[in-house]
Design goal:
With 192 residues, the chain is an alpha/beta fold. It has a single domain (8-190), classed as NAD(P)-binding Rossmann-like Domain (Rossmann fold), CATH 3.40.50. It is built from nine helices and nine strands. It has a six-stranded parallel sheet. It has a three-stranded mixed sheet with strand order 7-8-9. The chain is globular and about 40 Å long. It starts with a helix and ends with a helix.
Length: 192
């Protein structure tokens, strides 16, 4: 049951950033479900104690909190909405919070968010600022935007794998705007 749902999290995309996040969630005592197109990445996560989900859609029957960290906008749309086995193709998405930690455009977050709401789910844009080697040490920041109750749940989960979670109001794209500015500032600083 419900108790397990409360203490669980799903992670879609277990690459350089997702892998240490999975480890931090496991160390915090969460039941962690994983999905990735890379069978090797899944096998490694399972060896550490995670449980493989068959698809993003399948994950919804196991947990009500899903963190995704995927390469780009197109992949986010595929796993969330477009694919036959996408998150929102699950029978019952009510109460689901999808926390997107990918670096995507604000427009993508704002486009994806209402589709979640129609299904009784919430989408939280929460791009990660970190180097991959810093994530394990929780040297990561997340900039979060979305509905207040969903943001509260996102913060509880992200606190387990970061040292700072900044909340930027109810715009699901707000974090992505800050991320783009942040990347620009980092690039500018390097150029000098």
């Amino acid at each position: 049951g419900w108790v397990d749902m409360e203490n669980s999290v799903g992670v879609i995309g277990i690459g350089a950033m997702g892998t240490p996040m999975v480890e931090n969630f496991l160390e915090a005592g969460k039941a962690v479900f994983v999905f990735d197109v890379s069978k090797e990445a899944v096998a490694k996560a399972v060896a550490k104690g995670a449980v493989a989900a068959d698809s993003p859609k399948d994950m919804v029957s196991k947990t009500k909190t899903i963190v995704s960290i995927v390469p780009n906008d197109a992949v986010l749309k595929k796993i969330a909405i477009e694919n036959d086995d996408a998150i929102l193709k699950a029978e019952d998405c009510s109460g689901l919070v999808h926390i997107s930690c990918s670096t995507v455009s604000p427009a993508t977050s704002r486009q994806v968010a209402p589709v979640h709401t129609q299904k009784g789910a919430e989408f939280v844009g929460a791009p990660i600022f970190a180097r991959a080697d810093g994530v394990k040490r929780k040297e990561a920041s997340f900039v979060v935007g979305g509905a207040p109750d969903a943001v509260k749940r996102a913060k509880e989960i992200l606190d387990l794998t970061s040292n700072r979670v900044f909340v930027f109001g109810e715009d699901a794209g707000a974090g992505n705007v800050v991320k783009l500015c942040g990347n620009f500032m980092i690039a500018s600083a390097i150029e000098r």
